[in-house]
Amino acid sequence: MARRFLYVAVVVCVATFAYSPMAFAQDNSNGQLVISIKAYETADEGPQQKVLAEPTLVTIPGRPFSYNTGGTLKTKTGDEDLSIGTRVTGTLTRTRTGTVQVALKVSIGDSVSQDDDPETDMVKTEIIDIRTIVKMGEVKRLKWSASRWCEVRVDSVK
Fold it and tell me: What Cα–Cα distance (Å) separates residue 51 from each residue in 11, 14, 76, 149?
């Protein structure tokens, strides 16, 4: 009798946990997500578009992620190096409606030539801070200037 009661109690507990909405939400909220970011620029002489950056990252919702490509530019003055390239940091959070809240910071640093002043090093860095909601599997286009924009897409890892 005691053995049968223990067996029934274990089955009920396992079934309650396995099929409870809370257990499903916890399992679903920890699934990995893929974020694809494409930054573009149009050329001055026409509709040609140039890809500035195209990172694709796999992350866990609620945890910070980062991406860094490029490096540093050693200065002629011996001071602190200047950062060049693309840096992306952010977090993704699933919402109750099935969308994803995106907190994203994209930095694109390019060396600026100083032909008339060889003793000067210069880097122009554009920083775009984005807070938005994205529907899973859909591309969201975000324009930050007349000639530059980015596209963000979030998908589940299958």
Answer: 56, 51, 30, 10
pLDDT tens track for 73-128: 888 888 888 989 999 999 999 999 999 999 999 998 998 988 888 889 999 999 99
CA distances from 98 to 18, 63, 94, 155, 156 (A): 21, 18, 7, 11, 11
Location of structure tokens 């694809």: 36
What is the spatial distance between Cα 42 and Cα 49, in angstroms, rounded to a whole number?
A: 4
Neighbours of 86 (CB within 10 A): 19
Contact 52, 40 (CB under 8 A): yes
Confirm whether pTM is higher than 0.85. no
